Amino acid sequence: MKLWMYVVRRLLILIPTLLGLTFLMFILTHAGGTHILIAEYLNPRLPETAKNAATQAIITRFHLGDPIYVQYFYWLWPVLQGDLGFTITPIPLPVTTAIALFMPNTLMLTIVASALTWILAVPIGVYSAVRRDSVLDQGVRVSSFTLYSMPIFLIGFILLVGLGIYIQPAIGNVNPALLPQLRGTSWFDSTISVSYPTHILFFDAALHGYWNVAWDALVHALLPGLSLTLALLAGIIRILRASMLEVLDQDYIRLARAKGVPERFVNNLHARKNALLPTVTTFGYLVAGLLGGAVVIEYLFNYKGIGWWTTQAFYAQDVGAIMGSTFVFGIILVFTTLLLDVLYALLDPRIRY
Amino acid sequence: MATIYEKKGRYDDLKLSSKVFFANKSAVAGLIIFAIYLGIGLTMQLAPGLLGVQDAGLAANPACILQSPTCAGLLPTAPSSAHLLGTAQVNGIGDVDLLDLMMKAIRVDLALSFFIVLSGAAIGTVLGVVSGYAGGLVDEAMMRVTDIFFTIPYLVLALAVGFILGRTLENMALSLVVVWWPLYARYARSLTLSTKEMTFIEAARASASGRAKILFRHITPNVLPPIFVQISLDVGTILGIFASLAFIGFLPSTANVPELGYIANQGLTWGLIGYWWTVVFPGIAITLFALAVNLMGDGFRDVIDPRRRS
Description:
Oligomer: heterodimer
Helix content of chain A: over 70%
Strand content of chain A: under 5%
Order of helices and strands of chain A: HHHHEEHHHEEHHHHHHH
Distance between the termini of chain A: 6 Å
Mean pLDDT of chain B: 86
Number of helices of chain B: 12
Distance between the termini of chain B: 31 Å
Structural class of chain A: mainly alpha
Strand content of chain B: under 5%
């Protein structure tokens, strides 16, 4: 089977998955009763006399009198046209705007965390496998096993309390006092605090030469990024070590050693490249999970990413935001998985579909 | 033929299994720690007085405010001989002994983790085995349904389920069951598919065994042991997830239930300005349990998988 046919087949499977996801989330958020949605959209400052009419207007606007599956189609139609509705968290906004506001911060965190993870995991995992059963290998295995068992909030809290005095500022995503100097620049939309062209403040500020803003954004992402790194590291090292050990056991490695290739070349050229293959996919899945799974760390560090937004929406009973964020998570995860599978097929010619 | 079977004693399998398990030192250590947790949980359930706790129910006793108004808003105190792990402030009520509180929490957390994993595994295994064995359209539909659950991060899905159910401890457990069963469905399905292709199933079919008999007599006994190992590994994982969910505020701050993540969440208010023990100790309790369970689960895996025995 050709690769493109596989991709088309996978894309076709995505359609029912995404529809099912939105339907499930719609049922979950709307089955609680119409009062949640009415409370969200009703202006609390309206006088009592006007409230009835306003409630009626909301009911007709969202078709709340219809059965729930009919309401779903009324929700789906604008979504297909790119309109995800409205949210009240943190201020009344269209959901798409809120996502444009929060998603870049999560992206920033993901970039920092995945870069740190890769930089740390590859040498540790390879070394641990090459020097199998040495003191260092034992140490790596014990500490990665412990890290693997730690709840992520403990990792984050220990880093925050332990390193928070050295790496300042630790909480939040950027110092708001720095933002006024960006107002009026052509690349910063000060009304909703979104920057252009990458939307990630660090890169945009660096591109336009605002080094103090870029540095501040980077420092803010450092501790939460490091916490996520420590949480991911254990899994990656474990897989990398296992696949490295497997590769080192192969005949071609023995041949390379027998013909006198220096140990350093055997390990770094012959073995490592092949050992990295399965690691890349696992790493990819973990990063895809990070894009939506950093909820706990974003909450702890008050880092205003999409996970933080979801928790706030949960407290505020904000139907629009929950629907919007889960839809975005679903799309991200589904497409990243597809991309990874294709990438893996391209990297490893042994894979057939 | 029959004599060969009779030569083997009834408990020989068990003897061999326990020999393999107890040869693994770290697995035994895991088992001991697990037993201690279980002991604390059971004591708190049956006779909390034995461990010096009066009431195993609430996190902070609201009566404290009535008896001594000074309890309200009292700051946590550092670990000392009177309070081995220090005191915490829960739901605005201070002077709560952290060790007592954590023992209360272990009872609740253990019970709910077992509930989540066992019910998730029961639902998932049944659906997975059936869909794997039936194959065809049923299987395809089943897998598309589980796909849906894998497209959202589990914490977010649990939050969304909590949205409709309401923010209580029981609903937190229910929402994690919703998140957890697809994992078991996938696992049980893949185990069923690989078992289905084995020669002994073909032999059973050749000797005119019915579909139901093959399913219950031949496939299920081969699928269950790896599932049990997975359950033993997941009890530790789910405790961490459960606590994380409470930590990000699934339970309202007035919930006043003994739960490790909720205690850490309450401790966070003071934890960041120097009162670290209210977050770190509950976290360590979770880590220790997860560590013990992982070690123990590895031991069980050695028992059921002869290839891993050294």
